Structure prediction request, 538 residues.
Amino acid sequence: MTLGMQLLLLQVAIVLTTVVGTGLTAMWLQEQQLREAYQERMIAVAQSVAGLPVILDAFDDVDPSATIQPVAETIREASDVTYVVVANDRGIRYSHPNPDRIGEEVSTDPTIPLSGRIYVGTQTGTLGESWRVKVPIFGPDREVMGQVSVGILESELREDFLSGLWGLLAALVVAAVVGVVGSAWIGRVIRRRIYGLEPDEIRAMLETREAMLHGIREGLVAVDDTGRLVLMNDAAARLLDVGDPDAVLGAPIESVLDHELARFIASGEDRETPVLSGERVLLVHGDRVSVDGREVGSIAILRDRTELETMLRELEGAQGLAEGLRAQSHEFSNKLHVVSGLLELGHVDAAIAFIERVGSGGALSSLDERDGIADVEAAALVLAKRSRALELGVALELDPDSHLDAAHGDVPRTDLLTVVGNLLDNAIEACALGGRVILSIRDDLDPGVVVVTVDDDGPGVAEELRDAVFEPNVSGKSATPGKPRRGIGLTIVKRVATRLGGSAIAGVSPAGGARFTVRLPWASAPISAPAETIGTPP
Prediction:
C-alpha cells in the first residue's frame, strides 16, 4: 500500500471515529435536553392543576368529575401533553382523556404522590408507555387529598427527537465529507513535501546518505540561509577538530569554525580556495544550494592540503638538493680538469696547492659538532634549506651559539621542524639576491624551552604589521606567480606556538631586516646525548 493511501485511510478512520463519536454524544445530549424540557413542562402543568381552586372545591361535590374533567382536558390540550389525570386519595380517577376510564382506579402505583412527594419517571398505563410526573394535591390543612398525573407517551417523545435529528445528521455527514476531502488534500501536501517518495525510498535514501557522509574522505559542511550548521560529516569534524558533529548542529557557524572558513562557507562563493583552519591548510570548494529555484543555504567540501603542502615543501627541498648536486658535480669536473692540466704541465706543487685551496668548497656543506645542532632531523632540515637558499643566491648561516640536543623525550619534534621550516622559507623569500639569513636554535637558555630566532636583511616588517603579520592573508610581501595566497606560514607558526603555550613575535633584526623569535616549551626536559656530525644526505 502506498504512503498516500495509508495516510488517507488513517485520516479517514480518525475523521469517521471523531464524527460518529461526536454525533452519538450530541444525540444523547439532545434527548436529555428534550426530556428535561418536557419534565419541566409537565411539573408546571401538574402543579398548576393541583393548585387550582376549582379543582380543590370540586373534591367536595357529589360528582367531582363533572367539574374536573372539562378543566383537565382544556389544560391538556393547551399544554400539548398526552394526558392530565386527577385522582382522589384512594386512586379513583376524576379525569382522563378517555371518559370511560373516569371512576376507575389508576393503573399505576400512587404511593409516592400520596405520601406528599413528586414522582418523575417512565411507566406503562392505560394509554401505553409514557414519561410522566405525579404531584400531590394538598387540602386546606396540608393533608393529601389526591394526585395529579401529567404525562406524554414515549412514542411521541421519540417522534419529537427524530424530527430534530435530521439537521444533526446532515451536519455530521457534511463534517465527515469535509474531513475526508481535507484528509486527501493533506495527504497530497505531504506527498509533495517529500517529493512523492515512498517510505522504502526514503529509508534507502537515508541509508545511502549516511553511508556516503561517513564513508567519503572529504569533509562536508552545510549551513542554512540563517548561517546555522545543518550538516557535518565525520571527515569534516576530524579536519576541523570538532569532537561530536551532532552536538554542534544548529549552532551558528561562527561559533564552531575559524572566522575565515566560516566567512567563506557562509558567503556561498562558487570557487575553490585554500583556507587555514587551526594548523591545517584546507582546500575548500564552496557553492550555494538551491531547491526548486530557491536558495536554502551553502555547502562546502573540505580537502586536507596539509600533507600535500608538506610534501611539496619536501619536494622543493629535494629539487634544490638535486640542483646543488648537479652544480657541485659540474664544478668538481672543472676542478678535475684544472688539476689534470697542471699535472700534465708538470706543475705538481701548483696542483697540490689548488687542491688544498678548493678541496672543502662546493654547493653543499655539512653540519658538524661545532655547529651545536645534534638533532638529526633539524640538521637535515637546515641543510635542505641552505641548499635552497644557495640556489636563490641567499646565504643561510647558523648562529655559532646554536644548541639543540639530539633527543627530547616526548618532545613534539614535528612542531619544531614546522616552525623552523616556515620561518626559514619566509626569510629566504624576503631576501633579495645576495641576501643573508641567520638561524639560531637554542635549548640551553631556559630549562624546558627552545628559542628559535631567524634574522634576515630583507625589507623587514612595518611596525603596524608586526602583530597582524601572524594573521591569515596578511603579508608584507606581494603576490608572486604560482603563489597568489600568502600569510599562511607565519599563521601556522603562531598557532603552533600558542598551542604549545609559547609565543611568536616579530621585530627588527640587527642585520637590517626582520627578526622572528619563537619560544616553544617542551613537554619534558631535554635528554642529553652526545653530539654527532650531520653530513650531506646521500
